[in-house]
Design a protein that fits this description.
This protein has 403 residues and is α/β, with parallel strands linked by helices. It has 15 helices and 15 strands. The longest helix has 25 residues, at 68-92.
Length: 403
């Protein structure tokens, strides 16, 4: 079964790293993967290193807006990319087209009109309240060739909305992680703390992820001000880099805020790191403070490392973490509650240890990469079975045709 994977950006973030895990573990005796994505960014190199053929398509410049000038520009980008992707589909002739985002799903479905190619939208995002969101749902509903995989029930509910019938073509496959990459490693943890100049006895809180307003680093810095006043030797690590849109400006604002609050010496910006597991293991507490978190992969990775997690309730987070059992939850947007929780967990490290132990135990049963790939590959196979049972046959040139 030939599967064409499409990523609308060449950058590498959460959705892309999940794609790379899929490619690395896919059963090559049953599935033949090919990837198309823009060349700008590290993704093409990472795909090649995974031993998967990769082809270049134009990057998509499109996001939610209400400005007419930007709307025209984004629409033009969509049209160009759709044409480019359609040429690749005609050349590759896949049995299944896996689009690795909502925007990729829009492109993939439009690019395969008239080709009868089955398209899977991998839903990693929460649609905002916007008129275009309703149009996206309607477009997905009207195409009988599309099916959706949501990374959490929250994402599924958000995407389906109130549109009748869309839920029948949307399934949930909770993300998984490669547990082997996140095994506790004291030596690696000590090496990171030494590199960053962290003294013995200092309490280290961290947040890991793209520097962007949705991830809540700014609010965390403001909440950490209180922590710095109550916990002697507390440090905050901001791990990650800006990737898209105006994130560079946001990154500068984070540094300026730390200076304005007088805590610049206690807030350290590490930039993007390749040794994320080691960095997580160097922390006493990991914070997930997103305003809209579709799944929360970083929370799973932290628990697998043995590091306790404090998370704001958002999106799929409650599907991963049970309050006071496998992690600690606070109301999203409540900086005072976030500060109190950080102070409490720093003063009671034994509670954090217990949370991490129970969370790690849950990782192996619910969120392993093996479980994830098993569910995903069964889904791929079911789409082929469904196509054949509905009367779909292959043309002589390999393209599908409905009887």
């Amino acid at each position: 079964m030939k599967i064409l994977f499409y990523n609308h950006t060449g950058q590498a973030s959460g959705a892309e790293y999940l794609l790379l895990m899929i490619l690395a573990r896919l059963d090559r005796l049953k599935f033949d993967p090919v990837v198309i994505c823009p060349e700008h960014g590290p993704l093409q190199k990472l795909v090649t290193e995974a031993g998967v053929p990769v082809r270049t398509v134009e990057g998509l410049n499109a996001r939610f807006t209400s400005r007419p000038d930007q709307l025209f520009s984004y629409l033009t980008s969509f049209i160009r990319v759709i044409r480019d992707v359609r040429r690749q589909v005609a050349a590759i002739n896949p049995d299944l087209f896996h689009a690795n985002s909502i925007r990729a799903g829009l492109v993939a479905t439009a690019a395969t009109m008239g080709l009868r190619t089955r398209v899977v939208w991998h839903l990693h995002d929460l649609l905002p309240r916007h008129p275009f969101s309703s149009l996206i749902r309607t477009f997905a509903r009207l195409s009988r060739r599309t099916q959706m995989i949501a990374v959490s029930q929250a994402v599924a509910d958000n995407f389906v909305g109130r549109l009748p019938g869309l839920n029948l073509r949307t399934i949930v496959i909770l993300n998984g992680i490669d547990l082997g990459k996140f095994k506790p490693n004291t030596a690696a943890s000590d090496e990171v703390r030494h590199e960053l100049g962290i003294d013995i006895g200092e309490v280290v809180i961290g947040i890991v992820g793209q520097l962007t307003p949705r991830k809540g680093q700014l609010e965390l810095i403001r909440a950490f001000k209180r922590v710095s006043e109550e916990i002697s030797g507390a440090l905050l690590l901001i791990v990650g880099a800006p990737l898209f849109n105006r994130d560079e400006q946001y990154a500068e604002r984070l540094k300026e805020t730390a200076v304005e609050l007088g805590i610049a010496n206690q807030v350290r910006f590490t930039g993007a790191r390749k040794d994320v597991a080691a960095v997580m293991q160097s922390l006493d507490l990991l914070v997930v403070n997103s305003s809209a978190e579709p799944f929360g992969l970083v929370a799973l990775e932290s628990l697998a490392c043995g590091t306790p997690v404090l998370a704001a309730i958002s999106g799929g987070i409650p599907e991963l973490i049970e309050h006071e059992r496998t992690g600690w939850l606070v109301k999203q947007g409540d900086e005072d509650a976030l500060a109190r929780a950080m102070v409490y967990l720093c003063r009671h490290p034994e509670i954090g240890t217990q949370l991490a132990e129970q969370g790690k135990e849950q990782m192996s049963s619910r969120f392993s990469a093996d479980r994830y790939l098993d569910e995903l590959q069964k889904f791929y196979s079911s789409t082929e079975t469904s196509a054949l049972s509905s009367g779909e046959m292959k043309k002589a040139d390999g393209r599908p045709e409905f009887a």
